[in-house]
Amino acid sequence: MTTIYDPDVKEEMVRKYFYSKIELYDRECIENDYPNIYHKYLNLPFTITRPDICYGSPAEAKITNLGDYRDPNIEKLHQELGIKTFIVEVVYTPPNSNLPIHSDLMHVDNHIKLNLSWGDSDKSATRWWMPKDITTPVLSTPINPDREDYDLIYKATTNSPCLINVGQLHDSYNPSDEGRWTLSFIPAHQNNNLIQWEEAMQIYKDYIYD
Ligand SMILES: [Fe+2]
Hints:
- The chain is of the alpha+beta class and 210 residues long.
- The protein has helices at 7-16, 24-31, 72-81, 197-203, and strands at residues 39-41, 62-65, 84-93, 97-98, 112-118, 125-131, 150-156, 162-165, 170-174, 180-188.
């Protein structure tokens, strides 16, 4: 599936928390007892700078596109890997809250982000979910905020650099009293196609350690 990142589409998604369909790949995950296609830590030979925006504990959740902001070390890395940084954004999860379950696109796929979070690193996490009833394709249906129709299938802290699968259904979990700030680098191929999980495992293979 071609997945060109479209900020307008994403805005729509963020407003409505919709997703379009559950694909065959998800069912294979269930049969295989959920292999980890969700999260891998990276061992990067540099420190990612914490932007000024990523401080404090305001009450409102927000997603901020950082525009032209780039981390020079990430730029160098992506250049070496033959890819580019397409978008840089910050996702903020207030204290003692969750962001809604969602895919970052209007459909489910396996595209990735390179993430790093600051906040309460022992408690806050990214979590992945699977609908309990995967036999019913869901079209433009709001995700249940109570999460009662979903099974938690994977959970990981993102307090050190990592690749995460943001095409699968996920949320942000922050049960701490400290705001959780996640800096996201959305990499892409030179033609702007987003990078899928299996591709990322090859592209970043020299830096993946878990
Ligand atoms: Fe997301």
